[in-house]
Amino acid sequence: MNSLFKIIISMIIWGSVGLFVKNIDLPSMETVFLRAIIASAVLILYGAVLKFGKENNKKIELDENQRKDRKKNICFLIASGIAMGLNWIFLFQSYKYTTVSNATLSYYCAPVFVILLSPFVLKEKFTKSKLFAVIGAMAGLFLIMSNQATTANIAFNHTKGVIFGLIAAIFYASVVLLNKYIKGLSGYEMTVIQISTAALLLLPIIFYRNNLHISSMKTAIFILIVGIVHTGIPYVVYFSAIKDVKAQTVAVVSYIDPISAVIFSTIFLKESLTLLQIIGGAFILLSTFLGNKEKKDVEVIPEIDKV
């Protein structure tokens, strides 16, 4: 299968996650915990089957600098695992309070938050084009927030949903920035460790809350789909293909994710899509594109999105 086609398929799969999360009758935290457990198992199995990192199984003596890097990695991996878990929780909360379209588009402000935080965290220059990207995204959000309609006779709290989406975007941006400090690990290795960390850290909270009650077969099936089809499998496909595709191409193709999410929610959930939402979404996506276009090395971190 063509590598670019694999990435496109992954993006389309991630774009459909909201359809299933909407139908899972569990609190967001419990849903995220189960998703992380299932996805971790799939990814670890994938790594074991392919003997991922086989050449690293040999005993290697680490020098002092390598030991320090490993200790730093552990701290950043734990922090990014926490951020990833919170990112998913708030995104799933966003789905509960607003349409999939609004949740996805507000969540896609994550690159804009990266732009805003990069001058402080990474010491990157804040340029005019980045300023325009931020202004454009804010304008898009304003247009989306101005839409307070109801969809399919279901009352939404769009403002609350969009705010949850933005909080999720902030945590997603945190994952991106924290990953900049992690050295010597592949994208696959980082993702496995981060998702597993999120699951382990949520475990005591899940036991304490005692809300993990799967009441129907539909919920059980949808949880398996979200964990396997929307997380484990697309990551496997994505990581098997990304090394053969230019980073700039991956960055452009990644916009299939939010666009497909909007299309799926309109077709399958019958969610209304107003002109203001379309314009606002276009503003946000264009802003993130402009913000990424300036970078010489575009780093794309899969949805850890969604999904």
Provide a short characterization of the protein structure.
This protein is mainly alpha-helical and 307 residues long. It has helices at 3-15, 17-21, 28-49, 64-97, 100-107, 110-121, 128-145, 158-179, 187-209, 217-241, 247-253, 256-268, 275-293.
Oligomer: single chain
Largest sheet: none
First CA to last CA: what distance?
23 Å
Instruction: Assign an overall shape.
Output: globular
Order of helices and strands: HHHHHHHHHHHHH
Query: How many domains, in number, for the residues?
Result: 1
- Write down how many β-strands occur, each being a DSSP E stretch of 2 or more residues: 0
Query: How much beta, percentage-wise?
Result: under 5%
The residue fraction in helices comes out at: over 70%
Mean pLDDT: 85
Low-confidence stretches: 58-62
C-alpha Rg (nearest Å):
19 Å
Structural class: mainly alpha
So how many helices? 13
Architecture overview:
The chain has helices at residues 3-15, 17-21, 28-49, 64-97, 100-107, 110-121, 128-145, 158-179, 187-209, 217-241, 247-253, 256-268, 275-293. It is mainly α. It has one domain (3-55, 62-293). The two termini are 23 Å apart. Mean pLDDT is 85; it is low at 58-62. This is EamA family transporter. It comes from Clostridium aciditolerans.
